[in-house]
Request: fold
Amino acid sequence: MANDNQENLFDKLKSIVAEFAPQAQVIDIQGFGSGNINDTFWVSLQDAEYQFLILQRINHGVFREPQLVMQNMRTYTDHVRDRLAQSPLDRRWELPEILPTVQGQDYSQTTDGEFWRSLSFIENSKSYDAITNSQQAREVGYALGTFHYLTSDLAPEKLVDTIAGFHITPLYLQQYQQVIAEGKNTQTSPEITYCHQIIEQHQKLVHLLEDAKASGKLPLRVMHGDPKVNNILFDQSTQLAVSIVDLDTVKSGLIHYDIGDCLRSGCNPAGEETRKWTEVRFDMDLCQEILSGYKAIANSFLTKTDEDYIYDSIRVITFELGLRFFTDYLAGNTYFHIKYPEHNLLRSLVQFRLLESFESQIK
Reply:
């Protein structure tokens, strides 16, 4: 039965590949990456312009208007390609190329309403789930700095929100409070009690960045939205960062959500999926290395006020992600992909423990 299901999936994926590369012969298709939202596949081809490509099913439950996701991606990639053509960097930096369908569209929609896209595969590259040395840390910072630098002259208003309220921390607290009010999950355990306590203790934190935005201290810029470590690609030969991918959440917003998210992800040596959540710690040495790489390119646009909010951004985004995981767990795991029923609970525990570790060090 399992083999029948695999064959059916392979045949379905082949038919979707044909929408983008009708003359190509599909050699192999494999699941790819460790994303929590979309379904991603690596495709090997013969008799095609590209030997390899990435095929993705856009999660329609998360991205209600996938065409806007592709509109943002096109706006971003076109702008950055033009900028690099005019002012090339002094090292390798690549963008995933949007591969059109035979009809010239940026995505394909199946008869059952699924949205699929195809992107070029960035060859001789790999990603890591956790940083293992200081050079990697600096390169992670460089990658995010390069993204912000190359979009620093892209008007944020040219981008649309692909997820309503995304990275608006107070809204996530409201969602948590709504789930609690509806009594969707009444389970109790020491771990669940711990999560509730962390949320209760940090409620004032949720407004910190949004208040700075409202008062004009922090301006709207172009943000990536999900610059965690495994969304940064490294050259397999030089071990230098060559791209930042997963561009679904590129939008107008505060770059501090990006900076905090990158540091949150990069400074957890145990990784985001560890089951040993009580052993999670925030590595301050890695934090300094990432910031060193980031500022090496970002100092051209960072202000003193921007720098004043960097450490607060780590607290806000770490709390926010823990809150989102925990709320999704309480609501029945409807947003993030999970591998077992308590997966999102464990993810939230990892983030809340990371937050406590960071706060204990900055005091």
